[in-house]
Specification:
The chain is α/β, with parallel strands linked by helices. About 40% of the residues lie in helices and about 15% in strands. The chain has 12 helices and 10 strands. The strands form 2 sheets. An 8-stranded mixed sheet has the order 1-2-4-3-5-6-9-10, sandwiched between helices. α3 crosses α12. The chain is globular and about 75 Å long. The termini are far apart.
Length: about 325
């Protein structure tokens, strides 16, 4: 009996600790604009990207109950527009080199910090894939209002997944550039996690997390092996998530579960929007056979950009290699 009481007390303390950790993570205050700019200058200089600092203008879009922070990389107002969605836990400005260079290729680019990310409002890490899609569609609507009907979407990692969902939900789009894809009707979505054998056993109860909107936090490092992520831009990805003032280091259980379970607006086979799928050979998060299987289901106009010898973070580290095929694909689709 004493052992049972002791175990119960330990479990209660553990839950209290988890709740306290979750509360602190979701309510992290954002630094001031001045502090963010100073940090960004330091980060850009460290990465050798100082020349791109402040090559954008900023705007706040109020949509879906949030203040969504947008970054505009302007071309000519008559040029097509590309809405860009960042990856897990990060923010649009980490992809500044890509967005800036795309603007020089003749595209107006709008980078989005989704709810709970970057400079946008919302509790840190409180989102679902459906919510990310809602925010992306709000920015797509905004792009149509500002620039006309030549609008495309792009994204990297979690942002690539969101862009893929946008292609299914937004037939008005001219194209979608998806660095990584996922769909809810594949049986092995748990493979995109750090420990597939463990997470595969959790999948049957995952719907409860989304249904109950559970806000308890899961560290990003608990499902992505950040220490093994190579990158030229950020020497230590794990430390970056801990120290960066705008990075989201922990996400809600409902956010995590939603990535594998959110239904698409239409089946992959019925997507009409032209899609480019990008995959790197050494990507240790998205298995190549999975990505090729989903790509094979597409019946729309499509292109597979394969990057031999490259690792996951291609949209920050290998911009000059991916820029020409992305630009060519977009120009072809935007001209039709």
């Amino acid at each position: 009996m004493k052992k049972l009481r002791a175990a119960s007390a330990m479990a209660a303390l553990g839950m209290l600790g988890w709740a306290a950790y979750s509360y602190m993570e979701m309510n992290k205050p954002l630094p001031s604009d001045e502090e963010i700019e100073a940090y960004a200058e330091s980060l850009f200089d460290q990465a050798g990207l100082g020349e791109y600092m402040n090559t954008w203008r900023e705007e706040v879009l109020r949509a879906n109950g949030y203040e969504l922070h947008l970054y505009f990389f302007d071309s000519d107002p008559k040029d097509p527009v590309l809405v860009f969605v960042p990856g897990t836990g990060v923010y649009a400005l980490l992809y500044t080199e890509l967005m800036h260079k795309l603007s020089k290729e003749g595209f107006n680019v709008i980078g989005l910090d989704p709810r709970g990310h970057g400079k946008s409002s919302g509790k840190r890490g409180s989102y679902t894939l459906g919510g990310l899609l809602e925010d992306t569609r709000a920015v797509i609507d905004h792009a149509f209002e500002l620039y006309g009907d030549k609008v495309a979407v792009a994204g990297s990692s979690q942002g690539g997944m969101t862009a893929f969902y946008a292609a299914a939900a937004e037939p008005r789009l001219k194209a979608a550039i998806c660095h990584n894809v996922i769909t809810d009707d594949e049986p092995d979505n748990y493979r995109m996690t750090r420990w597939p054998s463990i997470y595969s056993k959790m999948m049957p109860i995952a719907p409860l997390a989304t249904l109950l909107n559970i806000e308890l936090r899961l560290p990003v490092s608990a499902y992505l092996d950040l220490k093994h992520e190579e990158t030229r831009m950020i020497p230590d990805v794990g430390r970056f998530f801990e120290e960066d003032p705008m990075a989201v280091s922990a996400v809600s259980l409902s956010a995590f579960a939603s990535l594998a379970l959110t239904p698409m607006a239409r089946p992959v086979e019925e997507i009409d929007v032209p899609v480019m799928v990008i995959h790197s050979e050494l990507d240790d998060i998205f298995p190549e056979d999975y990505v090729r299987r989903v790509y094979g289901r597409l019946n729309c106009e499509k292109e597979f950009l394969y990057l031999p010898g490259k690792y996951h973070l291609v949209m920050t580290d290998f911009v000059d290699e991916i820029l020409p095929p992305i630009s060519d694909f977009l120009k072809k689709q935007m001209s039709e």
